[in-house]
Amino acid sequence: MSLYLGLDSSTQSLTAIVLDVDGGRAQVVFEASLAFDEALPEYETHHGVLRGAETGVAVSSPLMWADALDLMFGKIAASGLDLRTLEAIAGSAQQHGSVYLNASASSLLAGMNPRLPPAQQIAGGLSRALSPIWMDSSTSRECEEITAAVGGSHVLIERTGSRAFERFTGPQIRKFFKREPAAYAATDRIHLVSSFLASLLAGAHAPVDPGDGSGTNLMDLASATWWPIALEATALGLKGKLPLIRPSSTIAGTLSPYWQARHRLPPSRVVAWSGDNPCSLIGTGLVREGLASISLGTSDTIFSLMRHPNADTGGTGSVFGAPTGDYMGLTCFANGSIARERVRDEYGLTWSGFSEALTATSPGNDGRILLPWFDPEITPPVLVAGARRYNLPIDDANGHVRGVVEAQMMAMNLHSRWMGVGVERIHATGGASANVEILRVMADVFGAEVCQFQVSNSACLGAALRAYHADTISRGNPRGWDEIVAPFVEPLIVRRLHPDRRRHEIYERLMNVYSACEIEALGCGDASKPLQ
Ligand code: ADP
Ligand code: XUL
């Protein structure tokens, strides 16, 4: 019996999954989640986020993430599991967010007192109190500056896999460098959320993996190294402040004496952490081409594995490194669960009322269309928030429920075509994948089979599987990804939804109308021509 721990520090919550692996078989023996707003109210976040006075700013507290780890280890230690066989720990984190540390951080990380919680001990190691996160859309100017300095968007896309996106770490670093030069100069190390939390566990600076490094606009995708031209275009002296980039299976260190003593844990291996989407790729079993996953979390994302980094020259989506050593295409939508919740709350519904409204309305929504851009949107880029309605009265609750879900699914379909994946099967994950009625709309819009999983946090499951995989490598007995994922992820499929041909035809026609509405709302062209 060997135990492997996966942690997922997402926008709103921290989740842990422990796998018990016996021979080739694995089962989930522990799963727990804590929501930041409720578990750590002193940080005053709303859905895990703090909004600044400046439009588009979205930040969160790295100290809150550290305290959440402590609370979670407390739960794991009290679970009754025999943790002496906890071999390895890996993690997943919200992508793009950055944590700024000064030169005292190394010694603070290494010398923490196990009698005290982590946050108060590392607070002095921060050179910036709050971390910008992926929901931040305040860096358009920096995106333009970086794009121009590297020689244009096509160059940035070709080298890094993405155009400059407001939420990506490079533009965020540039804004900090310009606005707070003294604090930038006092910064010794800039971590991603993933590498920061791995560093906290290991008690020493941990590397960034290519999956999360590719969400920075700073990494050369082909060589998985920092790209000097992008570093220069972003901020002075940046190279010396970034962690090393190392493969996802790298052992970053051993669980530090702090965590061992504080929660009576063994010296488990700490595996490099990655982003939540690369981890979800593993947790939904996408180690082969030709499948797609849709994650309905705080953000909605659609992604699939790529053997070759076929970047999106149109600039809609991104190519990231995958934990398998391959690549993954991804398109991200900011108005995911938060938009669904907005509609649910606006009309005083519960999730079951939301599902009933979907059942009570017809595919196509009788011509009612909602563009659910309640917050600034990433895809398509909408910097000034504001929902748009077509034939949809404001007091029409059912119309809004179907409107938000249909718009999200049609947008995902239209804006993932650049990946060139003929989607026959979609693996659905994220909190809202628990909702079968939402998955039914997904199946019908895509005309594809949709698989629902028993574990809705595939990022966390993927992290636990990464811990297992890296451990087999470090023991000199490596197991292939197929061998790790196939026997484990497939049995977790609890439901398969098949598309209805007639409904799919309705959506195929409606998608032209929907994309014309997007074009019209964006004011960017002739609405009679559909988006490609
Ligand atoms: P993240 O990991 O990005 O923080 P999760 O994947 O944990 O988010 O998803 C959390 C979200 O799932 C909640 O904000 C909620 O909106 C949504 N959710 C949970 N249950 C349901 C449901 N039955 N129907 C629709 N959405 C749901
Ligand atoms: C992906 C993205 C989001 C975050 C959410 O590019 O910005 O999916 O990773 O945690």
**Global morphology:** globular
Q: How would you name the oligomeric state of the polypeptide chains in this document?
A: single chain
Largest sheet: 7 strands, mixed
Q: What is the radius of gyration?
A: 22 Å
Helix count, DSSP H or I runs of 4 or more residues: 20
Q: Strand share of the residues? A: 15-25%
Attached small molecules: adenosine-5'-diphosphate, D-xylulose
End-to-end CA span:
51 Å
Roughly how much helix do the residues carry, as a percent range? 25-40%
Structural class: alpha+beta
The low-confidence parts are 526-532
Q: For the residues shown, what is the average pLDDT? A: 95
Counting DSSP E segments of at least 2 residues, the number of strands comes to 23
Describe this structure in words.
- The chain has 20 helices and 23 strands.
- The chain is of the alpha+beta class and 532 residues long.
- Strands 1, 2, 3, 6, 12, 13 and 14 form a 7-stranded mixed β-sheet that branches.
- The longest helix is centred in the C-terminal third of the chain and has 22 residues, at 501-522.
- Mean pLDDT is 95; it is low at 526-532.
- The structure holds adenosine-5'-diphosphate and D-xylulose.
- D-xylulose (XUL) binds at residues 10-11, 94-96, 134, 167, 215, 275-277, 299, 301, 332.
